[in-house]
Design a protein that fits this description.
It catalyses: 2 pyruvate + H(+) = (2S)-2-acetolactate + CO2. This protein is α/β, with parallel strands linked by helices. It has 24 helices and 24 strands. The chain has a six-stranded parallel sheet, with helices on both faces. Strands 11-10-9-12-13-14 form a six-stranded parallel sheet, with helices on both faces. A six-stranded parallel sheet has the order 16-15-17-18-20-19, with helices on both faces.
């Protein structure tokens, strides 16, 4: 065994350019190498050398030199957002849907502080971002000068790394290191703060291809001894279950996860961030798990004798009450970030490394061992549970006879009409997000863009714009709620001005749906500040921004309205009226274990919801 824990002669796992931080652009071969230029032009030249073709942002006084330099770039397109938070969410949506680092540029002070929510959103979901902020001149930093903010200090807890540039000669090296840090290891946001006087200083541009960061060395290859220990548990398991998390998307490990599942007959469940890594249609994919997961998925977690966490961080929304989580299971946890292993759940076999390579190594070892699956009875049991407790049943649509649009039916209809191969679904945060997670299958990674860790209302719509810009020709639909959508609805101007044909399907219940649901179920119907006034008229708002739009209020109108939305050439808003009394089920109540679910459909007792305390009872 060598010093990296692999057996002699073992083939190193293939790494993508992103995993090793290689320049995606010309790097040092850029035509601008060696030219003398102002620092602002050096920063733009650095972005060009890195292969950046689009940035999102909003100008201001301390960023004006950066924007003047952008004006002269033939390579980079700038997308002007209408709010700095929207700009960062656009860069985030671009990054999630393309796998490339997103870039945002803003000014100092309030411009910089407006990015904090977007940076924190990316940090919690491990998204590679480069956020460049203008700063006041070095001579007045710390004096409370006009539009000064210590953005490095403010964002310290929610960035992977940050830089305050002190010398124009450091600009190119800083940008190179920032991209390397953002996309390697566990991805994340990196902040670069640029004082405006440095942006004016002259410098000879020299872009490096390599980085020298002795203290930053992510572990990619899993320890061979730990891999063999994981294999022993798999070989002995009768009821294994894999949790596929966002790390499977980041490391492009979906094929390796599916191969291991097929080799040993291991079913999987998916977290919100892991959706699409393994195709939703895969027969071994049980789909969503956790607070609003399927009852059969949660039952599988409770009954499993082995849980393999593949790039998942054991969020409280997945585990439920920790003392009851997977009570019968040994746990294997694979993650590239050693800080995640053992942080929430005690682990029997920890493996630090890149998920793609580790899963491939596990499968190769199992093949060498001549391992055979022992899961036939387990899979039969899961199939029976899956049939008994579905997410959807035709009886759910019986309320249509009273003229009420059932949200599950409307979301499922969107799923039937969108192109499975070229569509991207983005969501805002709330009830509609969970309905989309439950009912919209995704057949490939990076086709479901949503805020998981931070749960950021106002994220989905600007993220959808970024995803559409990063994926020309894709069918991009944002599933939103009326509360979330209004947090960044000003970005309708961005879509219109840039000809971005994003679609918004608004599940409009005139309330803050998820909080309203909790107030109904756990606070005796005391609806404190969750009922929204019936304003604005979203169709008129769409018209004001130059969008097409319509509102539907009857079930019979839904299918044709979705068809018109998807067929529209430009941006389109579909306002779908639903009742504020609708709730997302099934549900694990806060503080309960995964085996305690409310509102699951039970075919065995007439395909009605059980224990919901409301609809269907």
């Amino acid at each position: 065994m060598d010093g990296e824990g692999r057996t002699a002669g073992a083939q190193a796992p293939e790494r993508t350019a992103a995993s090793v931080g290689a320049c995606r652009g010309a790097g040092s071969r850029t035509a601008k190498q060696g030219r003398v230029m102002p620092g602002a032009e050096a920063l733009v030249a650095s972005l060009e050398a890195e292969g950046v073709d689009v940035v999102f942002g909003y100008p201001g006084g301390q960023a004006i030199r950066l924007y003047d330099a952008l004006y002269g770039s033939d390579q980079i397109t700038h997308v002007l957002a209408r709010h700095e938070q929207g700009a960062v969410h656009m860069a985030d949506g671009y990054a999630r849907s393309t796998g490339r680092a997103g870039v945002a540029i803003v000014t100092s002070g309030p411009g910089a502080t407006n990015t904090v929510t977007g940076i924190a959103t990316a940090y919690l979901d491990s998204v590679p971002l480069i956020v460049i902020t203008g700063q006041v001149p070095r001579s007045v930093i710390g004096t409370d000068s006009f539009q000064e903010s210590d953005i490095v200090g403010i964002t310290m807890p929610v960035v992977k790394h940050s830089f305050l540039i002190q010398d124009a000669a450091d600009i190119a090296r800083t940008v190179r290191e920032a991209f390397h840090i953002a996309v390697t290891g566990r991805p994340g946001p990196v902040l670069i703060d640029v004082p405006s006087d440095i942006a004016a200083d002259e410098v000879a541009f020299c872009y490096p291809d390599a980085v020298d960061l002795p203290s930053y060395k992510p572990t990619y290859r899993g320890n061979a001894r730990q891999i063999r220990a994981a294999c022993r548990l798999i070989e002995e398991s009768d009821r294994p279950l894999m949790i596929v998390g966002g790390g499977a998307v980041s490391s492009e490990a979906g094929p390796e996860a599916a191969a291991l599942m097929e080799l040993m007959g291991i079913p999987c469940v998916t977290t919100l961030m892991g959706k699409g890594a393994v195709p939703s249609s895969h027969p071994l994919n049980l789909g969503p798990v956790g607070m609003h997961g399927a009852k059969y998925s949660n039952r599988a977690m409770t009954e499993a004798d082995l849980v393999i966490a593949a790039g998942a961080r054991f969020s409280d929304r997945v585990t439920g009450r920790l003392s009851d989580f997977a009570p019968n299971a040994r746990i294997v946890h694979i993650d590239i970030d050693p800080a995640e292993i053992g942080k929430v759940v005690a682990v029997d076999v920890p493996i630090v490394g890149d998920l793609k390579g580790v899963l491939a190594a596990i499968a190769a070892q199992l093949i060498r061992d001549g391992a055979r699956p022992r899961t036939a009875a387990w899979l039969d049991q899961l199939a029976s549970w899956r049939e008994r407790w579905p997410f959807y049943h035709p009886r759910m649509a019986e309320a249509e006879s009273a003229g009420e649009i059932v949200p599950e039916v409307a979301i499922a209809e969107l799923g039937r009409q969108i192109d499975p191969d070229r569509s991207i679904i983005a969501t805002e945060v709330g009830q509609h997000q969970m309905w989309a997670h439950q009912l919209l299958g995704r057949e490939r990674p990076r086709a479901f863009v949503t805020s998981g860790g931070l749960g950021t209302m106002g994220f989905g719509f600007p993220a959808a714009i970024g995803a559409a810009i990063g994926n020309p020709g894709a069918q991009v639909v944002c599933v939103a709620g009326d509360g979330s959508f209004q947090m960044n609805s000003q970005e309708m101007a961005t879509a219109a001005a840039n000809g971005v044909p994003v679609k918004v399907m608004l599940m409009d219940n005139r309330c803050l749906g998820m909080v309203h649901q909790w107030q109904k179920l756990f606070y005796g119907g005391r609806y404190s500040e969750t009922l929204l006034a019936p304003v604005p008229d979203f169709v008129k708002l769409a018209d004001a921004y130059g969008w097409a739009g319509e509102r539907v209020e009857r079930p019979a109108e839904v299918a044709s309205a979705i068809a018109r939305m998807l067929a529209a050439e430009g941006p389109y808003l579909l306002d779908v009226a639903i009742s504020p009394d609708q709730s997302v089920y099934p549900m694990v109540a806060p503080g309960e274990g995964l085996d305690s679910m409310m509102g699951a459909i039970d075919v065995a007792v007439g395909a009605v919801r059980t224990g919901a305390g409301g609809r269907g009872e």
